[in-house]
Amino acid sequence: MCKPLLNLTPAALLLLMVTSSVQAASNAQMIITASVVAAACDVSLSTSNLDLGNYTPSDFSGVANPISASKKQFIVGISNCQTPLAANDIAQLTITGQTLAGNPTLFNSNNTNTGVMLSQVSTPTDYLKNGDVLSVATAGGTPSTEDFNGKTLSLQAGLAATTTSGINFGAVNAPILFSFTYN
């Protein structure tokens, strides 16, 4: 009786080794971020995609000078705001996005010599840079939720280049984040 059991032992061990083997593929990592702030607001855009159109190299008229026909306006606003903590507190938006090397006002995540320039409609030649902070609203003497809720900024985007010759063909892709900043 022991003999047949001994004959099965190597086969059973082999079967156990094959079935208990674990195949590990690749691992995945996620970076999770959050901010703890004194007060919060939701940020919204009048559009999440802004198509500036199609242009040829001859449409570009200068370095870091947006093509007039490419300029499009959009609105960024804040809502669902908590009551500001104190009088004169400021609701702000921080602008972040990848820019072209040596050109902090030309946003583009593709490696070309063209990009998008942003400005406030009220100051059309004061171009915004990655990391700029824009004031949206200031709390009154007796702070209330209405001090910040529903406040907006009118911005415009336009297509520009880093050079006047040798303009690269291809798509311009400029993901830009507008994040709420308090004071």
Automatic annotation (TrEMBL):
A GO biological process held by the record: cell adhesion
Signal peptide (from-to): 1-24
Database matches in InterPro entries: Adhesion_dom_fimbrial, Adhesion_dom_fimbrial_sf, Adhesion_dom_sf
Keywords, comma-separated and alphabetical: Signal
Cellular-component GO terms for this entry: pilus
Alphabetized SUPFAM superfamilies for the sequence: Bacterial adhesins (SSF49401)
Domain Fimbrial-type adhesion span(s) in chain numbering: 32-182
Pfam family, one: Fimbrial
Protein name: Fimbrial-type adhesion domain-containing protein
Organism of provenance: Chania multitudinisentens RB-25
